[in-house]
Amino acid sequence: MKNVVTLKWGTRYGPEFANRLFHAVRTHLSEPFEFHCFTDDATGLNSEIKTHPIPEIDLPPHKLSTGWRKLALFQPGLPLSGPSLFLDLDIIVRGSLDSFFEFAPGKIPIIHNWSNTMRTITGRRPEVGNSSIFRFLPNEHTFVYEQYLKEKDWALETFNPPQTYLTHCIKPIMEFYPESWTASFKRHCRPVFPLNLLMAPREPKSAQVVVFHGRPDPDEALNGFEGKKLHHRTKPAKWIEKYWTVGQ
Question: Which long-range contacts does 169-175 make (Cβ < 8 Å, 24+ apart)?
Fold first, then answer.
């Protein structure tokens, strides 16, 4: 059985984010799967979603609301087994997810984190994964968590954002998913400043998944996003609606 796994904590993402993601996966994954949500509040979640408490992890209080919590998924004793695709709640799925399970067997595939245009052009794009999407084997890839326990203080002081530490741990068996499979809303859809003030974000041509790292979230981008800075603003991206409302 294939698993799709997500994490939900705090109040930024309500149950509708997990429910929409579940419906999107059911639409775009051709084989049977189980959908698992590790959460501190299962209220309002679809009854077909398997819910679990978020595993405890030794983190400073101010780190508990960050991506460092994803390391808890590499603890032994997780209540699932088999190939598991982790998906952040703030993504939209546009096409088949089958290939995300089939790609690079025996590896831990992850999407390549996006850099600014200049670093990409000059070939200085860091070899860092973006933990919005990665595949792992629960209870088999526990070396990640074991390594974290051995070097916790050093890791927390040295690595920022936390996905850079995950990359550090999995690098020996890491493989980047093909670039064309995913798109960054901020890098590939939002027009560059000042065009973002005049033109609506464009829909990517081929990406199966659009990742909304940082802000705006999908619902914010759909309706238009003000942001704190002019170059963060977006006009309404109406094309998001056909994916955001799937199964609703």
Answer: 169/143, 169/144, 170/108, 170/110, 170/129, 170/141, 170/144, 171/127, 173/106, 173/107, 173/108, 174/107, 174/108, 174/109, 174/110, 174/129, 175/103, 175/104, 175/107, 175/108, 175/109, 175/110
- In degrees and rounded to multiples of 5, residue 58 shows phi and psi of -75, 95
- Reported as a pLDDT band with limits 50, 70 and 90, residue 17 is very high
- Residues 178-196: pLDDT tens digits? 999 999 999 999 999 999 9
List of residues 6+ apart from 53 with CB closer than 8 A: 38, 39, 40
pTM above 0.85, yes or no: yes
- Bond prior to 55 in cis (omega within 30° of 0): no
14 φ/ψ angles, rounded to the nearest 5 degrees? -80, 180
Euclidean distance between CA atoms 190 and 139, whole angstroms: 39
56, HSE (Cβ side, Cα atoms, 13 Å): 1
Residue 119 confidence (pLDDT) above 80:
no
